[in-house]
Amino acid sequence: MPEICFDVRRLAGAHFPVAVIGGGQAGLSVSHCLHERGIEHVVVEANRVGHEWRSRRWDSFCLVTPNWQCRLPGYPYRGDDPDGFMVRDEIVRYLEDYVAHFRPPLVEGVSVTRVRRSATGTYELATTAGDFTAEQVVVATGPYHRPKIPRAAERLPGEIEQVHSSAYRSPGQLPDGAVLVVGTGQSGCQIAEDLHLAGRQVHLAVGSAPRVARFYRGRDCVAWLDEMGHYTRSIDEFDDAGAVRMRVNHYVTGRDGGRDIDLRAFAKDGMRLYGRLTSIDGPALEFADDLKVNLDHADAVAEGIKDAIDAHVADRGIDAPAEPRYTPVWEPDGQAGELDLDAAGVTSVVWATGFARDHRWIEIPAFDGRGYPMHWRGVTSVPGLYFLGLPWQHSWGSGRFEAVGRDAEFIAGHIDAGRRLADVCGTLTGAPTRVAAAVPVG
Ligand SMILES: Cc1cc2nc3c(=O)[nH]c(=O)nc-3n(C[C@H](O)[C@H](O)[C@H](O)COP(=O)(O)OP(=O)(O)OC[C@H]3O[C@@H](n4cnc5c(N)ncnc54)[C@H](O)[C@@H]3O)c2cc1C
Q: How far is the CA of 142 from the centre of ligand 1 (A)?
């Protein structure tokens, strides 16, 4: 249990140089960077530190990225398994230990319900514990706000139990019977595996997410990709930055020390695979005819990554053992495009269909038409307003443990510069105040 480091009774009516909204790894990282610079601030967290990991992940959850990538500012992973994958409770403990390590000015259990900017440029924050103001604001509320479930779900029979991936905990939570999992991003694949390993009959609607092998030529593929510079490549290098930001992550798992997720092997072992779910009419479901395309695409991406690793190994003359390539162990010949839930004994559906963003409580014109914050490296065009923890905010590791610290350093540097500008000019915008204007020039 982290110590509460800021007395909530001092919040209402207070004024801070900086307010950080959200006490996940992003909010804590920027807090550490501000702390190092001696910049006074407050971190307001709606729940408890580590809430997302603690409350929105399943019981068998573990990281997909190796522990050595957990390098929060001033607090890199210190355990004895850098190449392993922390399980859910270890991740929560890592964040709690981070709090104990530098004791940020953190308030837990307080939601920021509205942010506005006054005519003079001061930020006005309404919270469940009263209003306060700040000169600068960092929004670190994570990328995954509202569970996304397609409206077609309303057409399922009432007796089918439905749960979003963020509310899935374990196979035992679902009624006896077969389960339909919709979606094959990281969550969908791992939940399907969780259910499959527990002996449940799983029906899986497969989407277009790519996959990556866990290990290749003696190392974790993440380690190869890191060495090859993929995690430091800036979003600015891509012509299609908007599309890159929307990319779905490759599926793979860290479970039991890490392994591939091979949907074909699951199918060989009895899991029923389908293409994308296209229609629901009571118990009658229809799927697109794209299962083969989707499986082939996922394999092609995984093999393409191996090609790139081979080229890197050859280029650098690295001594890495050769490894045979993947051969598909199952092909979707004659797979059904329909599923009758009653006939198949399906009693529950897990929607692994992602999340929607929700920044409507920020009443500041800093967003594009889709509600995505307009920013460069988290810095917006509104002086003093920053975002942190967005996927691909600046690089592939943004929005994850890998790069959130680098992004936090950058934002903290900007905040510091803003304060110095205000010291000289009187305001964050650089518009001269009466005092600054009175100073003779030259
Ligand atoms: C299923 C899944 C698996 C993942 N696996 C990995 C992995 O293996 N490795 C990896 O590096 N990353 C992984 N990630 C990505 C990323 O690390 C997590 O999403 C992480 O939780 C992001 O941290 P954050 O601090 O940016 O946001 P969050 O952890 O979402 O924290 C935001 C905090 O803000 C608080 N908050 C929200 N709104 C308000 C408000 N209005 N007022 C006050 N507080 C508010 C929330 O309570 C929350 O605690 C995974 C993500 C998901 C969904």
A: 5
